Amino acid sequence: MPGRVSDSGDSLVPFSPEVRDPIVYHLQHGLKPPISRLSISWSRGNCLRVSFFRPSSSESDTENSNKEIGGKVVEVKLSSGDEEIDDAQKRKIAYGSVSPFALLQNRKNSILALSKMSMNSASYHVEWWQQVTEYSKEINSLLGNPKAAPTSVIEDPRTVVKTVEEPTCLKAAWELMEIFYADKQSHAWLPECLVDWLADYDSLLSATEATIHSKLVDLQKELVNLQAIEDDPRYWEGISSALAVGWLDIVVKLLRLHGSYQVDQLGSRETENGLVEAVAVLVSKMPRMRPELSRRGLGECFKTKPDFMKAWEKWRGHIAKLDCSAFWLKCDHRQTREGLRNLLQIMLGNTNSLTTATCNWMELYISHFLYIRPFTMGLEGMYSLAQRCMQLRPMSNTHRLMGLILGILGENTEVVLAECSREFGPWMVAHAIELLTAGSNQAEMLLHEERYNLGGISIEELHRLVYAQVLSSHALTWQIAPIYLTSCMKQGMGLLEILLYKQPVQHNRMLLKSLEICRLYELDSISTNLMKIAGIYHWKHGRKGSGVFWLQQARDEVRLNRIAQQLFDYVGKSISDDSLKQWEGLIELLGSEAKTAGGLEFLHKYRDLKKSLQKVQDGKASDAAKQAVESLILLMKNPSTPQRFWLSLMHDSLKLLNWREHPLLNVSQTNLLLNKLQELSIARLRPDFCESNLPPQALSTVRLALATNLGRAILEER
Asked: Record keywords: Cell inner membrane included (predicted)?
């Protein structure tokens, strides 16, 4: 691993001591040395594309000329080194959060519209707070729930800490913001909410710091090997630590493991066992200012402050009475006596005992709420208490959640946003802003204010655009980016248009997704342009049918007319059976759009003419010949038949003009064809005339056949 630069004064790039240790990525490229060049460029998302190049044949000497040349490209995904959520789970969260976010935006617009009509802002705030709470609960459930290990029928009494799935910092951060910003009902028992939060996520702090959770895990491993558990100081330390943060079920379970509960020792240790049981009962009867018990369900709940205060004073009186009891003198076991009295001091709120029992300032902070200041004193008072606890129990390593907690307690919205962005990424910021603005007018003004230095957009819109950009950079998430772009009133629609135009049109599935997005957001002009682009792309790459289909869907008459003109040019030069068969399907697809360029319906009639001519065999099928003549005359009379096809039609019908038995064309029909031939001769003098792919003598041959047929027709009519 490369070492740090000791002095950054002489370096080209000054080194900041606050930068984390560099992360080393080991690349497996599989190329044999030597490697002559290395190229690094950005790929999609947070990936780097690293290209390895071997020496070319001109660079290598004669000895190495027979070895492999070329190179290899490797993609490296950059990360902070502590990814707790994999890419698949991130995409699951991204897709799952779309529905709650979109529903909240829709309800916000509806509530705002109703509030403007009724002019009752109070009802608006109440209803909006309820919607935000529901939104927060949905997002919270999306981030996962701890899954306990399968339990056995007979529970092991020495199992102190149950094994559960490791929680994530992302969920811990979201629950923390939900407690302070979204769930207004919990503000009456905010300290108890923090107690539950620490119980769920204290294990996360164990990664960088000693915690009560890690202490109890270590104690649980040693319980199997301890004979007289009450003689070990770690046993009493674990109990006092669990009691300090309100994990009452663990405290009672550990106390019941005391040796005095064993059957063979009840007679000799009766007083000692009575003291242990008395403390266990006091712990289990601890008053709690909360609506209901948590999963660590011990204590007595009280919903109102007067009832709680009455029970609190009574409970503290029982503790003080037990602390002054004469039974302590009869307890011969020193560790038990000292350990139990320390537990009483913790419940009485002794600061020294609480400081000793906890491992970091967050745990000490929670213990103050439980035993010293059980009532909420406002965020300002809570922040001051946190500062004092940090002085008493500082952390050696700052955890990523601590900055967020201090930002919330300090009522600093900008710090909260910065911590969310730095530690948890754009997803967290884009969705947590709704919580920040739910209960604070100051935060709402700060985040919704249009700022000149941001291009006239607000901080809220900026973070949504950043998150939408992250979604747009991945092929599996770009289709949900429009949800967030359309919520940005200033620049969202413009960026959405750019996003849709950047999607590849050669794949029908991708194109259909883009068109569906255009339909949902009524982007008719963009939808039309996408279909035009797809049509042009397919036409240029040889997929004529697909090209015509998308141009028809876009109703692009200009380009369809050009395509029809190209068909005329092609068919006019060669109207053979093979060319007609090649273009017949496309001509059918063009349909009525081709008529605006002179009409291609004559080709269908020409097809009928060719079928009739094929039935004519050596002048024997007179009925088929007459039908062919009728088709020829209809084609020549039809004004939609282009002039360039006249000679080809008459040349293909030479068999009819030279019919052996009798002339098939009468005088008027023959004169019609001669007039057409004369017009064609004059038209050939124009520079823009398109010559057909016929023999040079085709014109004279047709003229001779018509003259012969005219003479025969005149003689027959006489």
From this structure: no
Residue 107 lies in a domain: yes
pLDDT at 637: 84
Q: Residue 174 falls within a domain, yes or no?
A: no
606 plus 671 within the same structural domain: yes
Shortest CA distance to 209 belongs to which of 92, 338, 362? 362
Q: What is the pTM of this model?
A: 0.73
**What span, in angstroms and rounded, lies between the C-alpha atoms of 127 and 117?**
15
Q: Which residues pair with 52 in a beta bridge?
A: 38, 72
CB 132 within 8 A of CB 438: yes
Helix (H) or strand (E) holding 367: helix 361-371
Dihedral sign from CA coordinates of 261, 267, 271, 272: negative
* Residue (of 447, 518, 448) closest to 486 by Cα position: 518
* Residues of the domain holding 282: 188-395
Neighbours of 435 (CB within 10 A): 23
| Residue 242 and residue 291 share a domain | yes
Predicted local distance difference test score (pLDDT) of residue 12: 38
683 and 567 belong to one structural domain? yes
Does residue 242 sit in the same domain as residue 375?
yes
From the list 591, 614, 613, the residue with the least C-alpha distance to 664 is 613
The number of helix segments (H) and strand segments (E) in the chain equals 32, 5
pLDDT beneath 50: ranges in the chain: 1-19, 60, 62-66, 81, 149, 574, 593-599
Collapse the DSSP code of 492 into the 3-class scheme (helix H, G, I; strand E, B; otherwise coil) and give the result.
helix
Say if residue 237 is in the same domain as residue 384: yes
As a whole number of angstroms, the distance between CA 562 and CA 557 comes to 9
Q: Is residue 567 part of a domain?
A: yes
Q: Could you tell me if 248 and 361 lie in one domain? A: yes
Cβ atoms of 479 and 518 within 8 Å: the answer is: no
Residue 676's nearest CA partner among 632, 630, 636, 617 is 636
pLDDT, position 570: 62
Radius of gyration of the chain (CA): 43
- In 3D space, the residue among 244, 192, 249 whose CA is nearest the CA of residue 356 turns out to be 244
> Does residue 472 sit in the same domain as residue 379?
no
Q: Are residues 382 and 327 in the same domain?
A: yes
Give the domain-ending residue among 362, 395, 428.
395
Give the C-alpha separation, 407 to 571, whole Å. Answer: 76
Of all residues in the chain, what percent are helix, strand and coil, respectively (each to 5)? 65, 5, 35
Among residues 446, 470, 489, which one ends one of the domains? 489
